[in-house]
Amino acid sequence: MKVRDVEVLLPTTIVGAYPRPLFMQGTKVFTWGADAPEFPSYWMRETFHDAVAIATKDQLDAGLDIVSDGQQHYETETAYEFSELHHYVPSRLDGYEPFGEPIAGNDGDTPVYMPTVAGPISWVRPIAKPIAEAVRAATDAPFKHNLGWGPVVLSDLSTDRHYHDRRALALDLARALNQEMKDLAGRGVDLIQLAEPLGFYEGESWMVEAINLAFEGVDAYRVVHICYVLNEGQSAIGEAQAERLVPLLRELDCEQIHLQQAARDFAEIKHLREWPPDKDLGVGVIDVQRTPAEDPQQIAAWIRAALEVVSPERLCVSSDCGMGSFRSRVVARKKLQAMVRGTRIVRAELTGEQLLEDELTATAAAGATWGKAS
After folding, report:
1. Which terminus, N or C, of the chain has the lesser number of Cβ atoms within 10 Å?
2. Residue 241 CB contacts under 8 Å (≥ 6 apart), including other chains
3. E strand spans, 133-279
4. CATH at 163
5. What is the widest separation between alpha-carbon atoms in the chain?
6. Each residue's pLDDT tens digit, 113-163
């Protein structure tokens, strides 16, 4: 897979979210409003930059090839962490107002509310600009930003008081997201990702139309994360979704499609034999529902299984979903280290290089620890 025009064999990254440091707990970074200041205070700007610097350092120390900002603006300390995921982009778009209908959860309605569409949706200002600037202040490493929900699910998770037409709302959301992604690409963001849990839908043609419109003309490596919404312990989608989704995924205009696989022990990988030849495949090898770090040897075995679907040049290794639900950065770091070690095992097999003795020792020790913990 090419990263900044350089071929990187089995590049490693995460979907987006990463645990916040203790000093960020209970902190809401951005306020609502298309005309709101970038940060509510200089103190908040400095605090946020520090959090992003810590998140990117953890990723680089673990050996990741592509860093995420860690979505340090998400309030992940409560059971309702998805609130910011629903509101962050709408809060800076014209046409949205806060607090519509409550979003139903597994146990009924939650205190997480849909944003309300009160008028025509439009992009009026850069949204993730302060996030991109915080990452660039911390590192010049290749950077992926998960912008959040794509136009399909965002249209579903909005209280529509204006369009009364799901397709029309999704297309205007796509146009707004398109302008935002072009702005991010202009700021040097290498990979831009949208999350779409398409397994929840029947895959109507307008859904592909909306996603492709959002990505149209964006000069960056474009990723669609097919979210199974598993990072809070849910078992939200039945088996064999990948097989059902592949025909739909072929129609998406992007460079990579990422699928959660670790939580299903890679049972779905056999359904990806007809993977679109024009797209890279991203696979999750970190299960975000369980605490113990994975066995690097198991991760290596999963990567080998994915290589039966696509060539090494088209495979990206990642977490299943966001890691923000891990309260401990220690846990998250150990999982990242296991992912990198497992990936290095397969890289060495592909290139003929010998792993260093300390890498072999660390990999064996990590596997032994994982076995005891599980």
Report:
1. C
2. 199, 228, 268
3. 143-149, 159-160, 191-195, 221-226, 256-259
4. 3.20.20.210
5. 63
6. 899 999 999 999 999 999 999 999 999 999 999 999 999 999 999 999 999
